[in-house]
Write a structure and sequence with these properties.
This protein has 117 residues and is mainly beta. The chain contains one helix and nine strands, in the order αβββββββββ.
Length: 117
């Protein structure tokens, strides 16, 4: 893989607008109207959210990530996709570079809802 060029500079204030949090993936279920999307039910400590992620074709068994902690962007507007609502975005590594994505995970267990940054 050849690394992509670095994107243009942003301000620290721009970065601070992102709300990236640790969540535990409680369940992974099929989105029948999509050949890419799976519905993740994610525990953020004080609430759970439904987050749609395009992982159906990226993994032999997408349900293998159940019970794992990962990073999620939680302050994006809700978005309708394939007849379902997504309340955030899985923050994974590799997809943009065309390689098999993996979860961005904390190295040790953290409380759900802990913020990155």
């Amino acid at each position: 893989m050849t690394p992509a060029p670095i994107k243009e500079f942003i301000t620290f204030e721009d970065f601070e607008k992102l709300d990236i949090r640790v969540g535990t993936i409680l369940s992974v279920s099929d989105v029948e109207q999509s050949n890419k999307l799976m519905k993740l039910t994610v525990d953020f400590g004080d609430h759970t959210r439904s987050i749609l992620a395009g992982i159906k074709q990226e993994r032999d068994n997408p349900r293998d990530i159940e019970g794992k902690q990962a990073l999620f962007v939680v302050n994006l507007p809700e978005r309708n996709m394939a007849g379902k609502v997504s309340q955030g975005m899985l923050f994974d590594i590799g997809y943009a570079d065309g390689i098999t994505p993996c979860l961005a995970t904390p190295e040790i267990p953290l409380p759900n809802g802990a913020r990155a940054g």
